[in-house]
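So, can you check this one?
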Amino acid sequence: MELLQTGAVERTVRLDPRTKLVLLVSVSTALLVGGSGPVMDAARVLMLLAPFALLAVSGRIGAAAGLLVAYAASWSLTALAVPLVEGPLNFAIVASCMIASRFLPTIATAYFVFATTTVSEFMAAAERVHAPQWLVIPLSVLFRFFPTLGEEARAVGSAMRMRNLRLGKAGPVSLVEYRLVPLISCAVQIGEDLSAASLTRGLGAPVRRTNICDIGFGAADVVVWAACAVSVGLLVASSLGWIGA
């Protein structure tokens, strides 16, 4: 496996890495800002549907459908089950569903960013905005850390199935241990390998890094920037009382 590999990413929509990061911040802001009303609800719906739509058009329909179903389930559980439950269980359901509904769209956006952006594209975009090296280097390592950890998790799952370690035969605690302990060991090793690979590739060197990838803003970037600006602007204006809620 090549670490910090720069390869072609399958996608049908091409966005500049800077646009993706702005979208990530905008989705997080829209879902975490308080308040209610038609204006704020409309802005939130726009930012809510954006990551799922981008995942779908980028060819990751399964991931988009799974995350959207999880979001709909958490919202439905709050609306339907909470009025029928009382006491501590009510609090546990409300807290869990609120956390899930607020963070699942952000997780979907982050997944889209990591799945459709190569390290070279991110590095080129960071140099365009003159981002400091102490921020760029850890983020560039993360772009390879999570995909590599995902491959290791799938390998651990395959090894467990080969040994017939399933929920029915191994207890829940043992099942978590069989998955968690190998993943922790893999995470440590992956971090060391990625650090060595980043030094080998010259990340952090005092000279300017060259890139052969092509980045830039297009029509899709303009649409995403406009949607983010409108949504965040409406949320800020509504929360400050400049426009009616």
Remarks:
- Residues 76 and 84 are 13 Å apart (CA to CA).
- Residues 1-10 have pLDDT under 50 and may be disordered.
